[in-house]
Amino acid sequence: MKIKNHTVYLSFSLLLMLSSCVDVNENDMANNILEKKMTLVTIKTSHGDIQLELNDDKAPITVENFKTIAKSGYYEGTIFHRVLNGFMIQGGGLTTDMNNKSSGTSPIQNEANNGLSNDRGTIAMARTNDPHSATSQFFINHKDNGFLNHTGETLEGWGYAVFGKVTEGIEVVDKIANVPILPDNLSGGREGVPENVIIIESVTISE
Fold it and tell me: Does domain 38-206 match CATH 1.10.10.10?
């Protein structure tokens, strides 16, 4: 009888220990979720809404830059001026008459070495050949574009900084990617110019 009681006591103690471990693990998970900073964004376009989740933890400089520009109202009336089906859609730097629009902000540090990949549905910063030249223009990957990822801190290896991903509206991205584009002789030498203007009506930040 004493052995049985002892066994029951040990079993009860083990259950308490397991219960405590579950509580701790659940608390750890909750804390990890709270600590993971994300910014929610809605890009309202003439073709529909695209909702994104920006990764403040992995790309703090890029996200802060995007938020600052968006909150200023700069993106309203800019367009998706470069659309390449099976590659990406690019916007946020030209007006409806295809003129460059200055954001008035300085170029930012390239954060492409943050471990985020240029996968389908991710948003990344567009730039010139200078790795650290991004200001306002961005693109959304229409498919996995691993060749755009960071491979080294060289001119060829820096890559393009991913700073978020589409959470709703990937069908809008597909719709934009599939629009007819102008032939080269009618696009003023620009690549992937849509036949009809695709307007960014607003970019709304929800933190």
Answer: no
